[in-house]
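ok new one. same drill as before - structure tokens go in, u give me an amino acid for every spot. 218 of them this time. try not to just spam alanines like last time pls lmao
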């Protein structure tokens, strides 16, 4: 079916990192923020929580779209949480909380879970799964914590850290797909597309110099 209609991927996320990951992989998504209130969803398991939030985000965006005869629309919802010391950590509420987290996390490790929910608007089929990656944090100093938190970056991301931004030097190593920590696992997306009888190469685009033109490959 992908040979008949061009594919359109709608990313149900405001995360610039997720969009950049797709763009770096040759995929130019449309972005539509879901507006889901993440605080309303509660779960005892990090894997269940991030998957439910990913599902709700995808469904919320899907309900605002209209089918078209010219494109086959896919909606991708994602959500990430950090499992650490038996707790589920999303975005910290304020700088004080981000500081407390880093004082606990430094020199230790946690598991970053990213839920993915992909829905095909044509027939309503859904493919979903969770990618999980172990993150080993550096034993950073009080000054490094204060300076990092002062940038504001930890307040905008699950677990209060990144690996693709200012927080990169504070992560010693990871066990698993780096994309999971960024919030979108490309290998997992490839498998979810296959579950819907699609290929990730169907989403590849060619961008002209200056990003002035985007045209499908192949």
């Amino acid at each position: 079916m992908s040979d008949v209609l061009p594919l359109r991927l709608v990313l149900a996320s405001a995360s610039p990192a997720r969009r950049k990951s797709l763009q770096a992989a040759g995929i130019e998504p449309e972005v539509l923020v879901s507006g889901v209130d993440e605080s309303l969803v509660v779960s005892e398991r990090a894997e269940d929580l991030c998957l439910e939030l990913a599902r709700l985000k995808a469904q919320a965006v899907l309900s605002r779209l209209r089918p078209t005869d010219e494109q086959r629309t896919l909606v991708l919802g994602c959500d990430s949480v950090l499992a650490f010391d038996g707790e589920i950590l999303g975005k910290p509420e304020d700088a004080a909380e981000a500081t407390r987290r880093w004082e606990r996390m430094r020199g230790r490790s946690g598991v970053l879970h990213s839920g993915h929910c992909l829905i095909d608007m044509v027939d309503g089929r859904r493919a979903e799964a969770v990618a999980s990656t172990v993150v080993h944090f550096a034993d950073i100093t009080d000054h490094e914590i204060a300076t990092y938190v002062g940038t504001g970056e930890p307040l905008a991301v699950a677990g209060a850290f990144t690996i693709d931004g200012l927080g990169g030097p504070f992560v010693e190593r990871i066990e698993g797909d780096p994309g999971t920590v960024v919030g979108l696992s490309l290998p997992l997306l490839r498998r979810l597309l296959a579950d819907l009888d699609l290929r990730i190469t169907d989403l590849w685009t060619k961008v002209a110099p200056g990003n002035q033109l985007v045209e499908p490959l192949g």
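Residues 7-216 form a domain with the Maf protein fold (CATH 3.90.950.10). and btw Helices lie at 16-24, 46-62, 95-105, 142-150, 178-182, 186-195.
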